[in-house]
From TrEMBL:
<feature type="domain" description="CstA N-terminal">
    <location>
        <begin position="2"/>
        <end position="363"/>
    </location>
</feature>
<feature type="transmembrane region" description="Helical">
    <location>
        <begin position="227"/>
        <end position="249"/>
    </location>
</feature>
<feature type="transmembrane region" description="Helical">
    <location>
        <begin position="341"/>
        <end position="362"/>
    </location>
</feature>
<feature type="transmembrane region" description="Helical">
    <location>
        <begin position="62"/>
        <end position="82"/>
    </location>
</feature>
<dbReference type="InterPro" id="IPR003706">
    <property type="entry name" value="CstA_N"/>
</dbReference>
<feature type="transmembrane region" description="Helical">
    <location>
        <begin position="130"/>
        <end position="152"/>
    </location>
</feature>
<dbReference type="Pfam" id="PF02554">
    <property type="entry name" value="CstA"/>
</dbReference>
<feature type="transmembrane region" description="Helical">
    <location>
        <begin position="158"/>
        <end position="180"/>
    </location>
</feature>
<keyword id="KW-0812">Transmembrane</keyword>
<feature type="transmembrane region" description="Helical">
    <location>
        <begin position="300"/>
        <end position="321"/>
    </location>
</feature>
<keyword id="KW-0472">Membrane</keyword>
<dbReference type="InterPro" id="IPR051605">
    <property type="entry name" value="CstA"/>
</dbReference>
<feature type="transmembrane region" description="Helical">
    <location>
        <begin position="507"/>
        <end position="530"/>
    </location>
</feature>
<comment type="similarity">
    <text>Belongs to the peptide transporter carbon starvation (CstA) (TC 2.A.114) family.</text>
</comment>
<feature type="transmembrane region" description="Helical">
    <location>
        <begin position="397"/>
        <end position="420"/>
    </location>
</feature>
<dbReference type="GO" id="GO:0009267">
    <property type="term" value="P:cellular response to starvation"/>
</dbReference>
<feature type="domain" description="CstA N-terminal">
    <location>
        <begin position="379"/>
        <end position="524"/>
    </location>
</feature>
Amino acid sequence: MNAIALAAIGIFVFILGYRFYSKFVAEKIFKLDPNYVTPAHKFKDGVDFVPTNKFVLWGHHFTSVAGAAPILGPAIAVYWGWLPAVLWVVLGTVFAAGVHDFGTLVLSVRNKGQSVGTLAHRLIGQRGKVLFLFIILILVLMVNAVFAWVIANLFISFPASVLPVFIQIPLAVWIGHAVYKRNKKMLVPSLVALAVMYITAVVSSQVNFLQIDLVRYMGGEEGAGLFGLGAISTAFFIWIIILMIYVYIASTLPVWQLLQPRDFINSHQLVVGLGILYLGLLFTNPQITAPISNPDADVSWFPLLFITIACGAISGFHGLVSSGTSSKQLDKETEARFVGYLGAVGEGILALVSIIAVITFFPNRDEFFATYSSFQAASGAGLGTFIQGASQLAEGLLIPASVASTIVSIIVVSFAATTLDTSVRLMRYIISELGVEYKIPSLEKKHVATTIAVVASAALVLLPEGPNGFGSGGYLLWPLFGTSNQLLAGISLLLISIWLKKLGRNYAITIIPMIFLMFMTLWAMFQQVFLQWAWYAESPNTLLFVFGAIIFVFTLWIILTAIQALMNPRDAGISEIDLD
């Protein structure tokens, strides 16, 4: 099949979903009120609660949720063939992800900007809230470890991307100061900042001394490194420490000072990046060489496909962003559709081009199967294959190969970094909420909670387990990230369903994808946790088994509590919800 036709069909379905389905949900189900006073105005504090232009907020929301996951998951899932991956990305985005992201944003806005974890108290009771908060805490911890692992490895593999990524930070701080202290407009400065980044990318890709290559500084791959770790492991360790220092600062600063302007720059970067890839697709007109399906796969796509793609179709982490940061910045309630649903559509478009970049990269089917020989091989090759495939598309616009690979890696790193510091900020919120819950005042302090979040994330990503040795913690956690992420999305859809039922509205739009998602994810998680990682494994993975078993049991407990609340809210002891 022609790749252009496949992209056109997918984008057309996304447009129909936003134009008609999201409008129906906004007007008939959520009944958005243009006169409703949002938490950004009610509790305006200049730090977390900040009324924000919808385009700027969309930029923050989109880039916070569009990390490496919507690229990596689909790039792995094509192992089972491109058709199952495309169908789940397109249909999952329209009927599950869009409603989930939109719904959690509206639910939070209608309840003082509280996170879905806190709202669980009102919707399914105190016990459900605590269990849910612990699941969220484990998820964001894994997000921090996985994305830090991805960024550090990309910095090592593509040293020309380091300077353009880091030059964005002072530019974003300058823009934030100009906009919020001097009342300047954000659009033009952010475009200038993007131009500076890409000029730096072109120059650094051609000039060796501008490439911050820590491995080279230590004598190459065979170098001794520090503390006997070797050059690559030492470079990885240094990058993780630098990233943790950065996210500590970024997650404690007011959102206007770094988070919003940097995310707005990244939103332009994503538009430019997607434009380059889709225009490159038009000019190169590549043929799909990967198979439509893979009947000889060593593991079944059903149900593992639905946890492998994860963020490319629906993601519980999106609900944390919607209710954790975006709801505190929404200027008008009617803009929730633009921010929430369209943000999910943007992520679907990114996942779609990720699939296309991989399935058109190989010259023939044999080459595809040589790289994607097994599911494990696909897991290791996915991100690198995407970068090579995306660079190949960009070369269709006469962009040199070295520049194209640098720009693509910058895009991936920028989004992963955006997700990383947003996730650390969310983890700080959760730790503070648990401090309130268990009456531990010290945990309520911003810097104490942030320190715990950063130290725990660094410790997890630096775990010396697995075949890759030092620093493989993030890699090992990827399978569990997908399952816990989808379970969180299912629980959030269940909370929205309870809320809609209490309002006397049709909750079929949330309960149907919730049932599908929970069934597939719990089934896949049972296979992974209790069979592959423990029972049948030659060397059981204790880390994954412990984390997975806790999440599995907690999720079943929450589902039973939530079903009780859905069937009979009064008997479940549910308090009233703020509907004003």
